[in-house]
Amino acid sequence: KMKDDILRAIASVLADTKNEQYKVQITVTDNTHNVDGIKEALATQFPMVKYFDNGGNIGFGAGNNVGFKATPARYYFALNRDTIIPENTRVIGRMIEFMDAHPRVGAMGPKLLNMDDTVQSSCYRFDLKSILIKPLKQLQWDKKYAWVRRTLKRLHMEDFDHNSTRPVDWVLGAALVVRHEVTQEIGWFDERYLAYLEDCDWCHTMWEHGWPVYYVHDIIIKHTHIRASAKVPGVWRALVRNKTARIHLNSWCKYLWKWRGNHKYYAPIA
Hints:
single chain, 270 residues, alpha+beta, six-stranded mixed β-sheet, two-stranded parallel ribbon, 39% helix
């Protein structure tokens, strides 16, 4: 239901890759059964884009998997619809060059900026204590309680200035590049998650199979980052009135159960 965002994101990708030597295939997978006419808009404005109607909300990971599997490639780039690639920055070309230069890196995520150019949290630690209280952020408890803020700072790597490229435990799925060989070895997004933490889970699996994940500070994408699961404050009101908050909690439970007994850091802690 975000046709305008999608069209704007596609335009920025096409502008970014206009003069590149690399062949890029853009794919849109639709979890809303074309309720806003995105299929017709794409056919008119961007006929080179592949479009898939998933017939309903099959989930973030499953939706991305549909797009990935549609076109075999050296690299797969999951990109949220609420993103903009800044002009004249060669984001996608430089992503490919980084991955080509580091053949043992399984995935990378760029620096994400808010629309006001402030740095957005996009790389994280597998910190069990902070993951355990992660739902409290969706309930906005980090705005009320200092102990929640302190704990979540470690999860969000707020002690890291985000101006250096380094291995990290996991990167946000809003802009995530994954190597083909990784998908051949470990598969795609785990489709048991309807939404949230499927990026954390995928990166966790990569590290378990010896594929490091990197945050690359000098490749930049702007991201609106709408936190739909945090729109309704309060525990019970959020769970009753906010379906997205319930989905987030469900994914949190699935992640903790799947990785029970296997919570550890992979990237250097410092």
